[in-house]
Every structure is written in structure tokens, then in C-alpha cells.
Automatic annotation (TrEMBL), chain A:
InterPro entries on file: Fe2_transport_prot-B (IPR003373), Fe2_transport_prot_B_C (IPR011640), FeoB_GTPase (IPR050860), G_FEOB_dom (IPR030389), Gate_dom (IPR011642), GTP-bd (IPR006073), P-loop_NTPase (IPR027417), Small_GTP-bd (IPR005225)
PANTHER family the record matches: FE(2+) TRANSPORTER FEOB, FERROUS IRON TRANSPORT PROTEIN B
Binding-site residues for GTP, renumbered to this chain: 34-41, 80-83, 140-143
Localization, UniProt: Cell inner membrane; Cell membrane
GO terms for MF: ferrous iron transmembrane transporter activity; GTP binding; metal ion binding
Biological source species: Candidatus Gottesmanbacteria bacterium GW2011_GWC2_39_8
Residues in FeoB-type G domain copies: 27-189
Example of a GO cellular component annotation carried by this entry: plasma membrane
Function of the molecule: Probable transporter of a GTP-driven Fe(2+) uptake system.
Membrane topology, from the record: Multi-pass membrane protein
Entry keywords, A to Z: Cell membrane, GTP-binding, Ion transport, Iron, Iron transport, Magnesium, Membrane, Metal-binding, Nucleotide-binding, Transmembrane, Transmembrane helix, Transport
NCBIfam families: feoB (TIGR00437), small_GTP (TIGR00231)
Protein name: Ferrous iron transport protein B
UniProtKB/TrEMBL annotation, chain B:
Name by which UniProt lists this protein: Ferrous iron transporter FeoA-like domain-containing protein
Ferrous iron transporter FeoA-like domain sequence ranges: 50-120
Protein source organism: Candidatus Gottesmanbacteria bacterium GW2011_GWC2_39_8
Tree of life domain: Bacteria
InterPro entries noted in UniProt: Fe-transptr_FeoA-like, FeoA_core_dom, Transcriptional_repressor_C
Length: 642, 121
């Protein structure tokens, strides 16, 4: 059983790899579809025993996840899709779902809906029925509906649609068995619902005129994007109103409510988080205690120090320093493992002693944040400010996630509705949002230097706002619109927090560890061939212009490959007493602004296109250098010593 | 009649001129200022229909219609299902509008909210 689970875990997707769905293979495909934040991924996880990230904010799933399972002896491919409100799509990730449905020829569509919101989700059920694939309707979160005093007449619903209707509480694994049984029997015995919705004479005529040889669903979509009609309400609106009227009537037929409207505790809490008077102080407290005290001081300070000094400093490094010369007779190759930039003494130490504890604690904190439903509340709180820099409150989610891992967050910018917002958010992620490893190390460096901390915070804030403001003026496009579903506050489940943190940490670590070893190898190679010295001499020009010691050049060279390796390098240089506090401040500011690591650069090029990606990269380097130069001169002119 | 944005004075029948291209010309409770184009509600005391932005925190109603020429906004409203017949309740107005549609809460900005017309309970 445990082995079973473990071997399945290997099939799970990592954060940033996209699952390729082979639409032509013969394995029967089952697609989970539904509005955002109804629990499709939870159902996917319980059906397949694998792990797709689950959170409590709309837009957690931006790509497809798939897993092959065996149902009653048959191989079945289960696909989890990003949430859509309707088949008439707006954002990029919604397009992913729509294309999948039409291209993959699914054997079963599973429409997952939030039971209490039946009325608002039935229009999508209708649209999915029109695609003509066999379907199952899952009323998830039925417990939340019951708490509100709502009961659903399942029999009636089944008879209206002529498809299986199942109630479920996916997080508690209720209804999953019934669902898999139904999927299995639908695959054996495909039944297409005979339900046909009548849009009325005038519209039906238009539908039948649209395109020959394509299904009803596609015809309706074409009709909706047709804006040639004048003198009447747009067709997209007419069709939506008709569907909604039907949905409201249907919901009234099957839903009954016993009035016991009580204000639950989570409602009160929700108000506290979103009201400006209490919301902003809570946000600041969170930043102070969560980021600064817990991660900056405790983890990046105490925990890292302990592992560095007590484990690596006294046990591991001395051990390798004595053992390696005994195994390898040549001093040059000894250096490869235990020298100045040795794989064991530097690469492994950076990864395990510095990066691992910081990244894990960040991912843990964010997992709690994501699952509680706080992020959308933060988004609405900050929307008005973000409008000034060309973003909407929606962008809070990728930017906050960027504090964890910028590459992951660059992918999440997909959920932003306009290209303009996506470009600005990507730029911000590369420039002003340090990733967890970097931020942790930087905070550890600044702890105790309140002056330096202040200068760093103010500089980064000014750059964030100025660049955003200018970006918003320069980039073409409409002003962003803000709309976001605010899910109920939920108490995070420990199991999911653990799952999410551990899968992200292991993904991150597996990605970072080999790179750190390769980096150490190249440093060693550069060192013995003299290339490193040459590069450091070249780097010395800009580095000395911003007033930093020559040694920091190495940190910047590797900052190009991974910001966190660069930051960890700075940490070493500062600890060995080569920089004063002024220099430290300049170094930390420029390292924060320094562009992405390789992974993020690749992600930028993939999501925004090579041209935009390269431009963003260049902008970041220039701004980092200029900011360093300005700081140095300001310190000199006003003879400030921090 | 006076525009509540630029202060321009005009007659009610002049105001309709701004709406020529709008498909929902009859029964639209908004009036558009011929000077600056700003849209604001006529007095609507008889049928109690008003834009979502005019409602106060804690008030409830049912969506009456969606009134906009802007295809992007309309597509979003349609996609989110903020459509006639759905019950609405205002939860908070500052710093952003937060309201309940059916049993789901949304935060939306004023440019979306002002075109959703609600019949107040």
C-alpha cells in the first residue's frame, strides 16, 4: 500500500512542468471540469492517489494534471483542468480547458460544482451537456450547503438531466467511490443525455444557421462571439440570460432551504481581514512576524547558523577535509570537492545549510496562507494601490507566490486577464520580488542592521512603485479590471499543508541541488584555468563602480545563474568581514534587483515570449546597477555611515 | 439635470443622445452626460432599480439587468454569472466593493459594478 502510494507520487507533476496530454492515444479519458475553487483537484487527488496542488483561491490549477489509474481492470486517464466559469473563455488558463474538451474526445466529462451555488453553476452544466459527451454531475461541498440549511433533491436533478448526479465532500473522501463506480460504468456503457435545451424560435434559427458539421456547443460559441448583430442586445448576453433564467428555475425546483441564517465565525473573521481599518494592520503584522521574525530572524538566522556552524563547520566539512585527501591523491582534484568553491564544502553546504531550511519554512507559511483563503482577501484590500502601477488586485497572488519561488509565480501570471498586466507582473517578479531563498539569506544579512534594513526596504519599495507606475504609462493596453471570487475562509487541513510543502520543497531541492553542484564545478574549473580570475576582473569594473570589494564579483557571476547561490555567496563574503555595512546595503539591494535565476529566465521566455523575456532581463540588470550607483553616491555625498 | 461628474447642466432628453449605440436603450436607468460621457443613474425611486455602486453596505436585491456597451466587461459579467434573477447582497464598500452573488462572494471594481443594475429589496 505504501509502496503503491510512493510509486504513484513519482508520477505527480512538479510545479512548473506542463503535462502533455496525448489526445490521440486510446486510453479512455475522463476530464474533471468546473468553476474555479470548487475542489476539482481534491477530487482528482482522491480518485488517482496522486497529488495536484490544492488551495483555497480561484486559479490554483493553471495547467492540466493527468494520472493513469486502473478502474475495475481498465486503464483510464483522469485529467484535472483549470477552472472555467463558462466555455466562453477570458483568460489563458480557461482556454486550456476549453481546447482540451473539444480536442481530447473525452469518454466522460465530470462536472464538479459547489452544491450551494447550484443556481450559478448550472449554466456551465448546460454548456457541457451541449458538447454531447457522456457526463456525470458532482455536487461537491455538500456539507457546506447543509450547514446553510440547503437540501438538494438529487432524484429530481437526475431525472431532469438524464445523467448520474452524485453528492460529495471530496476533502473527506465522501462520494469518491460512487464517482469512480459511475465513471467505470459510463465507460463500459456510454450514455449520452437526451436533454436538449430550447433557446426559443429566433435563437434556434440562428443556431441552426451557424456552421455545418460542427456540434451544437461549438455553434453556440460561434454565435456568442458574433457581435455583428445591431439594434438588439448582444447575443452573448441574450444567450446567457436565457440560460441563467432556466438555471434559476431549475435550482428552485430542486433546492429547499430551511431558514436558520446564522452568522458564522468565519464571516466575522472575513470582515476583519478585508475591512481597511483592521485589514492593513493585520497584513503588516503578518509581514513583520511571518516574514521578518519567523523566516528572516529565526530560520535564516538561528537555524541556518546552527546548521552552518555546528553541523557543517564542526562535523561535516572537517570530516570531508580529512577523508578526501586520503582518497584522492591530487590536490587539484581535492579542491574540486573540498576547496574554496568545493562541491562538498560550498555547493552542498549552500544547498542544505542555507537554502533548504529557508525555502521549506517559506513554502510551509505559504501553504497555510493559500489554504486559508486569505490571499483573495489580500487582493481586494490592495487593489486600489495596485491600479496605480497598472495591475489589479489579482496580481497580488502571483507576486506573493513569487516570494516563495519566482519561476512558479511567473507561471501563475497566466491567471491575469490582460497581456499588459502579465508583462508588468512578470517584470516585477524578476526585478523587485526576491524569491524565498534569496529573501531569507538577505534578511539574515540585514538582521541587526536596522539602518541597512530601512534603506533596503525603502529602496525596493520606491523602485517597485516607480517602475510599476512608469510601466503602466508606457505599456499600451486598457486599464485593468478587478474581479475576484472571495472563497469562504477555511481551516487549512494539516495533511494538505504537509503534502503541498513537501512536494514543493522536494521539487525545489531536486532542481536546485544539481545546479549548485554544477556551479561549484564550474567555479573550480574557472579557478584552475584562470577564467574565473578574468571574469572577476571584468566584473570588478561595475562592482567597484558601486563601491563593492572585488570578491563580490564571484557572487554576481553566479547570481546570473541562480540568485540564491549569489545571495549565499554574499552571505559568505560578509561573514568573513570583507564588507562594511554601507557596502552590505548596496550589495543586498543590487542582489535583490538582480534578474531571475536561469529557471525563471526560461519561464519568462516561455510565458511572455523571448523578446519580452530578454527585455525584462536587460531592464533588471540596468536598474540593479543604477540603483547601486545611486546608493553609493548618496552615501558619499551625505557622508552616511550605516 | 446636472452631471454629477463635471457639473454640466442639460435636459434629460439630451442625455439619451450619448447612448445611441447602446443596445439596451429602453428602460436603461443610467443617463449619460452629453459633455463628458459620464454615466449616472436617473432618479429611480418608482421601481427601485439602481447600479450596484449606489447600494449601501448591508443592502440586498436582485439583479435587474446588465447595461453596458463594453464587450469586455459584458463578457466578464456573463462568465461570472452576474445575471438577471441572481440575488445580491453588499458586504462592504471600502477599499473595494465586496458582494455576495447567490452564495458566492466576489470583489469587483466600480467599472464592473456600475453597469450591474439591481432591484433593491
Amino acid at each position: 500500500m505504501i509502496f503503491d502510494r510512493l510509486s504513484k507520487k513519482h508520477q505527480t507533476k512538479s510545479c512548473c512542468r506542463e503535462e502533455i496530454i496525448d489526445v490521440n492515444n486510446d486510453t479512455p479519458k475522463v476530464i474533471l471540469v468546473g468553476s474555479p475553487n470548487v475542489g476539482k483537484s481534491v477530487i482528482f487527488n482522491s480518485l488517482t492517489g496522486s497529488y495536484a496542488t490544492v488551495s483555497n483561491y480561484p486559479g490554483t490549477t493553471v495547467t492540466l494534471s493527468k494520472a493513469n489509474i486502473s478502474l475495475n481492470g481498465k486503464q483510464v486517464e483522469i485529467i484535472d483542468s483549470p477552472g472555467v466559469y463558462s466555455l466562453f473563455t477570458i483568460t489563458e488558463e480557461e482556454m486550456v480547458t476549453r481546447n482540451l474538451i473539444f480536442k481530447a474526445n473525452p469518454r466522460v466529462l465530470v462536472h464538479v460544482i459547489d452544491a450551494k451555488n447550484l443556481e450559478r453553476m448550472l449554466p456551465l452544466t448546460l454548456q457541457l451537456l451541449e458538447t454531447g459527451f457522456p457526463m456525470i454531475l458532482v455536487l461537491n461541498l455538500i456539507d457546506e450547503a447543509e450547514k446553510l440549511g440547503l437540501t438538494v433533491d438529487i432524484r429530481k436533478l437526475t431525472s431532469i438531466f438524464g445523467i448520474p448526479v452524485i453528492t460529495a465532500v471530496a476533502v473527506k473522501n465522501i462520494g469518491i467511490k460512487e464517482l469512480s463506480d459511475n465513471i467505470s460504468s459510463l465507460i463500459d456503457n456510454p450514455k449520452i443525455s437526451k436533454f436538449k435545451f430550447d433557446y426559443g424560435l429566433a435563437l434556434e434559427k440562428k443556431i441552426s444557421e451557424k456552421g455545418i458539421g460542427i456540434g451544437r456547443a461549438k455553434r453556440l460559441l460561434e454565435l456568442q462571439s458574433d457581435s455583428s448583430e445591431t439594434g438588439q442586445q448582444p447575443l452573448i448576453y441574450q444567450i446567457a440570460v436565457i440560460r441563467q433564467r432556466w438555471a434559476t428555475e431549475t435550482a428552485q425546483q430542486v433546492l429547499s432551504k430551511n431558514e436558520n441564517g446564522r452568522k458564522s465565525f468565519s464571516h466575522v473573521l472575513s470582515g476583519i481581514f478585508t475591512s481597511p481599518i483592521t485589514g492593513f494592520p493585520i497584513l503588516l503584522l503578518f509581514l513583520y512576524f511571518g516574514l521578518y521574525k519567523l523566516i528572516g530572524q529565526f530560520v535564516a538566522g538561528n537555524v541556518v547558523n546552527f546548521i552552518e556552524n555546528n553541523i557543517f563547520g564542526t562535523i561535516i566539512n572537517p570530516f570531508f577535509r580529512t577523508i578526501i585527501p586520503k582518497i584522492i591523491p591530487f590536490p587539484v582534484f581535492q579542491d574540486l570537492f573540498v576547496g574554496n568553491y568545493g562541491i562538498l564544502t560550498t555547493g552542498v553546504r549552500y544547498a542544505i545549510a542555507i537554502i533548504l531550511p529557508i525555502v521549506s519554512s517559506f513554502f510551509f507559511l505559504f501553504a497555510i496562507l493559500e489554504d486559508s483563503g486569505y490571499l483573495p482577501r489580500m487582493a481586494m484590500l490592495i487593489d486600489k494601490i495596485f491600479k496605480r502601477i497598472g495591475l489589479s488586485g489579482r496580481a497580488v497572488i502571483p507576486l506573493i507566490l513569487g516570494l516563495g519561488c519566482s519561476s512558479m509565480a511567473t507561471m501563475v501570471t497566466r491567471t491575469l486577464p490582460t497581456k499588459r498586466e502579465r508583462v508588468i507582473a512578470t517584470l516585477m517578479l524578476a526585478l523587485a520580488i526576491p524569491c524565498s531563498a534569496q529573501l531569507g539569506v538577505l534578511m539574515a544579512l540585514l538582521t541587526g542592521q536596522s539602518g541597512a534594513m530601512l534603506v533596503w526596504t525603502i529602496t525596493i519599495l520606491i523602485i517597485f512603485l516607480t517602475v510599476g507606475f512608469l510601466g503602466a504609462q508606457i505599456l499600451p493596453g486598457d486599464k485593468p479590471l478587478f474581479y475576484m471570487e472571495i472563497p469562504p475562509l477555511r481551516i487549512p487541513s494539516l495533511g494538505n499543508i504537509w503534502h503541498k510543502t513537501s512536494s514543493r520543497v522536494s521539487w525545489y531541492f531536486l532542481e536546485v541541488f544539481p545546479l549548485f553542484i554544477i556551479a561549484s564545478f564550474f567555479l573550480w574549473l574557472g579557478n584552475i584555468t584562470g577564467v574565473l580570475n578574468m571574469l572577476v576582473n571584468i566584473m570588478n569594473v561595475p562592482v567597484s563602480m558601486i563601491g563593492l570589494p572585488k570578491e563580490t564579483g564571484v557572487a554576481y557571476i553566479f547570481g546570473f545563474f541562480r540568485r540564491d547561490y549569489g545571495a549565499a555567496g554574499l552571505y559568505d563574503i560578509y561573514k568573513s568581514g570583507l564588507m562594511n555595512v554601507n557596502q552590505l546595503t548596496i550589495a543586498v539591494v543590487t542582489m535583490t534587483l538582480f534578474p531571475a535565476c536561469i529557471a525563471q529566465a526560461l519561464m519568462m521566455a516561455k510565458e511572455r515570449g523571448r523578446l519580452t523575456g530578454t527585455a525584462i532581463f536587460a531592464v533588471c540588470i540596468s536598474i540593479a546597477f543604477i540603483a547601486g550607483l545611486l546608493l553609493k553616491n548618496i552615501f558619499n555625498i551625505f557622508s552616511i555611515t550605516l | 439635470m446636472k452631471c454629477s461628474f463635471c457639473g454640466y447642466l442639460f435636459k434629460e432628453n439630451e442625455g439619451a443622445g450619448g447612448c445611441e449605440s447602446c443596445p439596451i436603450i429602453h428602460g436603461c436607468p443610467l443617463i449619460s452626460c452629453p459633455n463628458c460621457g459620464f454615466e449616472f443613474p436617473k432618479s429611480l425611486t418608482e421601481n427601485n432599480v439602481m447600479p450596484l455602486t449606489e447600494m449601501k453596505s448591508g443592502e440586498k436585491g436582485v439583479i435587474h439587468s446588465v447595461c453596458t456597451k463594453d464587450q469586455t466587461i459584458l463578457a466578464k459579467i456573463v462568465a461570472m454569472g452576474m445575471l438577471p434573477g441572481i440575488k445580491v447582497g453588499i458586504k462592504q464598500k471600502i477599499p473595494s466593493l465586496r458582494c455576495r452573488f447567490g452564495y458566492t462572494e466576489y470583489a469587483i471594481d466600480d467599472s464592473i459594478a456600475k453597469v450591474i443594475l439591481v432591484e433593491k429589496e
